[in-house]
Amino acid sequence: MNIDFEIIVFYALAATGVVSGAMVLIARDVVRVAFWLLSSLSAVAGLYLHLGADFLGLTQVLVYIGGILVLILFGIMMTQRDPGLVKLERKSTRSMATGVGVSLVLFLVLASVINSVGWASRRPASATPTTQDLGTALLTDYVLPFELISVLLLVVLCGAAYLARRRVEQSHA
Amino acid sequence: MGFQYANVLFGLLFGVAFVILNVAVLSRILAPRIKDPAKETTYECGEPAVGSAWVRFDMRFYTVALVFLIFEVEVAFLFPWAAVFHHFSKIGGLFAFLEVFVFVAILGVGLVYCWAKGDLEWVKSTSSGEAAVVPPAPRGELRAP
User: Fold this and answer.
1) Do A82 and A150 reside in the same domain of the chain?
2) Residue A6 and residue A146: Cα distance in Å, rounded?
């Protein structure tokens, strides 16, 4: 596997991710948006794998594609009152301007952060499985963050259940 | 780099090619073509479909999916632990066990909360206090609230 092949794989994955991400914005049918999102998230998972972050890539598949995307599809199935007919409408100029402004600010923040990090210019020469190293780190240096993640997930769980419950009661009332 | 990921890539390409070859190529060559209106139905040799497939699903699926998502993230964090637990158990695994026990126990509190609040109940009581018994759904449709 020479370097050219790796570059081809990288650009194929990156192009898939960017084009799918653009289609998420362009597509009018909300279900098609969800499936373009599937393509985009898969490409990002492929990029993680390409960078040798195997655990991160598979977690991306497990959590984002297996969980969040299914949740989005659930949301579509539960909210569409006139199914198959509802298309996303073009927003007014004002909301478009707001969206572009927020996106621009977010882009600038991300770009400055990405530029300020001293990235390794080369990938590790050998891609070894990272799961065991992560486990060792979680059991030694990162014990407290590990437990804090649990507390964070607890808060998210309670908040999500609370919000979903409120909606259920309102819809029954 | 390489050998394992080459396997993954090969498996991926093989899977895609398998589907395309069978669905798009082989079936066109081999399958006899006899038009029949029954073949156009959703379940060719099953029940006749009633209504559209685009029905609104019940909100309670969403709550269950949300709870599932949280525990899925929890499981994702347990994989690295499980991968090295055997190693740590040789050099005193009690700490490694207790750490994850606390991790799971904290999230267990959340499960108990959802359970106690009735989020996991399939038939919920409404805010008016009456039991919201699910009425018998029309055939072929899921109940919309």
Assistant:
1) no
2) 34
